[in-house]
Design brief:
The chain is of the alpha+beta class. Helix 5 runs antiparallel to helix 6 and helix 7 runs parallel beside helix 10. Pfam families: AhpC-TSA (PF00578), DUF4369 (PF14289).
Length: about 375
């Protein structure tokens, strides 16, 4: 009988250990808050959705549950601001917050989130460095010091390039972590061509292959193959401002830049003067631009065209990020462009400023 009891106790202990490993617990404290509610939320189609609610008692709250796979979660206090973004996995997590400085909330105990914190720390450093360079640029421009302004601009671009290299190395070094899939989807995907994105995605560990991030990345890889260099540009028809349909393939015989932009996109508007100059230089030689706007209102779209003096062809379905052409081309960030040869084949992607000017000078030699 004693042996049976011993075996039963041992079995229960093993079962308890296994159950603990398959569940998470979040124990939190918020200094300065005695009562209230904390909401555990996730994003569904880009919108926050509560998956659990905990009462705050004496400044403390607790969540328990199970994650099939680590994923991003958010904590919100009552109807106030979100005070934590973290990767939730099946582990014992501690959250320490202060009502007067919710942005400085500390989260410990999650191995997955520990990986994420390494990346976030580097990004915060980059953000500070970028702000310093922006201040230097603005200061130089205000004093008409073009040399200093140009140096700040070059340093800024170098910093962005270094960040891209760091991010790629980070996701490769942590290919077994879902954090890398998340970072690749939201930080790298719009900067890489299909082949390079595929080379990163294909090396993710099998255990994260079913995560929504890897699934979306694989879909992007397939989409980007359709718009790879050398591929025939996917054809589409969309109406211009007068309701007249323009078909991309009708422009064959010309060098065409399909330019995805919007009136609300700051970098797009900053790039427009360069595109205007290039268009004026090469249009008479057989260069055409088809601007595809991701605007939501016709008024904003037409005002930006007029204000920026964009005299080329323009189309839009005013569906914002659901723009049919943008979805067809896998565009998830703007500005984005595709340069087509006279046969409608893609010969350049994401060309801007001097890169675009250089490419066109090769296609239209004097």
């Amino acid at each position: 009988m004693r042996n049976v009891l011993t075996i039963l106790v041992f079995a229960l202990a093993v079962f308890s250990c296994q159950s603990a490993k398959d569940q998470y617990s979040i124990k939190g404290s918020i200094k300065g808050v005695e009562t209230g509610k904390v909401y555990l939320q996730k994003l569904v189609d880009g919108q926050p959705q509560s998956v659990d609610t905990a009462n705050v008692v004496g400044g403390k709250f607790t969540f328990k549950g199970k994650m099939e796979m680590p994923d991003i979660r958010f904590l919100r206090l009552n109807e106030q601001e979100y005070f934590a973004q973290f990767f939730l996995d099946n582990s014992s997590i501690t959250v320490v917050a202060n009502k007067d400085s919710l942005r400085n909330t500390k989260i410990t105990g999650s191995p997955t989130h520990d990986v994420f914190k390494i990346y976030i720390a580097e990004m915060e450093k980059l953000s500070n460095d970028v702000k310093n360079l922006q201040d230097k640029y603005q200061s130089a421009m205000s004093m008409n010091n073009t040399e200093a302004a140009e140096k700040a601009k070059i340093d800024y671009q170098a910093m962005i390039d270094n960040n891209k290299v760091y991010t790629k190395n980070f996701v490769k070094e942590h290919s077994n972590s879902i954090v890398s899939a998340y970072i690749t989807l939201y930080q790298l995907a719009n900067q890489l061509d299909g082949a390079e994105l595929d080379s990163i995605t294909s090396k993710f560990a099998p255990e994260i292959s079913k995560s929504e991030y890897v699934v979306k990345l694989n879909e992007l890889v397939q989409e980007q193959k359709k718009t790879a260099i050398g591929a025939v540009a996917p054809d589409f028809t969309m109406n211009d401002a007068d309701g007249k349909p323009i078909q991309l393939s009708s422009l064959k015989g010309k060098i065409v830049l399909v330019d995805f932009w919007a009136s609300w996109c700051g970098p797009c508007r900053q790039e427009n003067p360069n595109v205007v100059k290039i268009y004026q230089q090469y249009h008479s030689k057989g260069f055409e631009i088809l601007g595809v706007s991701l605007d939501k209102t016709k008024e904003d779209w037409l005002k930006a065209i007029k204000d920026d003096n964009l005299t080329w062809l323009h189309v839009s379905d005013l569906q914002y990020w659901q723009n049919a052409a943008a979805r067809l081309y896998g565009v998830n960030a703007i500005p984005q462009s595709f340069l087509l040869d006279k046969d409608g084949k893609i010969i350049g992607k994401g060309l801007r400023g001097e890169e675009l000017a250089k490419k066109l000078s090769e296609l239209f030699p004097n």
